[in-house]
């Protein structure tokens, strides 16, 4: 009986050993079969991570551009505010000048009826100083050319020249901005 048990036991051990070898081979085959797809999956994950880094870089670049545009916008708004203040001051100077009575003193005719001679519209030379000084300078320049105009007309011409100069400066600013943005586009 012992020999029968021993034989059964040995047979069972051999069977288990064969099954173990079979299972080991199957596990090895399974590992080999999984390595290919898992490798592809890891490759895809690496590629996705790389694209995500590129997107993060692009987003950061766009954030920097937006910040630069906002900065330019704020500078432009402050320039507009300064221009508005300057215009407001000039309008106040004009109003003060007209209220001051200089025009009513009769330097060139009556204030109710200024005598004027029809004159050609001309570009006055750039002037500096207070509004009254600029009006007086414009008036002297016009009188030197042989034309006679009222003080109000001289003031109107100074105002018109200031407006033209402001428009010219604004065009130059706009052209510089456009040329800079065009240069930037060409670089990209």
- Given the C-alpha coordinates, what overall shape results? rod-shaped
Largest sheet: none
Query: Total helix count?
Result: 3
Beta percentage is: under 5%
Radius of gyration: 45 Å
How far is the first residue's CA from the last residue's CA?
93 Å
- H/E element sequence: HHH
Structure description:
- Helices cover 79% and strands 0% of the residues.
- The protein has 188 residues and is mostly helical.
- It has a domain at 150-183.
- Helix 2 (131-144) crosses helix 3.
- The chain is rod-shaped.
- Residues 106-124 have low confidence and may be disordered.
Summarize this, please?
The protein has 188 residues and is an all-alpha fold. It has helices at 2-99, 131-144, 151-187.
Give me the secondary-structure topology.
Layout: H1 2-99, H2 131-144, H3 151-187
Helix pairs in contact: 2-3
Keyword list:
single chain; 188 residues; mainly alpha; 3 helices; rod-shaped
């Amino acid at each position: 009986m012992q020999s029968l048990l021993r034989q059964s036991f040995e047979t069972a051990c051999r069977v288990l050993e064969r099954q173990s070898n079979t299972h080991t081979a199957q596990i090895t085959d399974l590992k080999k079969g999984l390595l290919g797809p898992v490798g592809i999956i890891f490759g895809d994950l690496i590629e996705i991570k790389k694209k995500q880094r590129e997107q993060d870089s692009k987003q950061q670049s766009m954030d920097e551009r937006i910040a630069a545009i906002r900065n330019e916008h704020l500078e432009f708004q402050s320039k507009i505010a300064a221009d508005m203040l300057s215009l407001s001051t000039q309008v106040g100077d004009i109003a003060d000048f007209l209220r001051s009575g200089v025009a009513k003193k009769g330097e060139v005719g009556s204030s109710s009826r200024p005598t004027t001679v029809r004159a050609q519209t001309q570009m006055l030379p750039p002037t500096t100083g207070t509004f009254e000084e600029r009006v007086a300078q414009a008036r002297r320049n016009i009188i030197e050319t042989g034309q006679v105009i009222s003080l109000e007309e001289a003031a109107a011409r100074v105002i018109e020249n200031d407006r033209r100069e402001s428009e010219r400066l604004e065009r130059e600013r706009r052209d510089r901005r456009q040329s800079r943005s065009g240069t930037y586009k060409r670089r990209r």
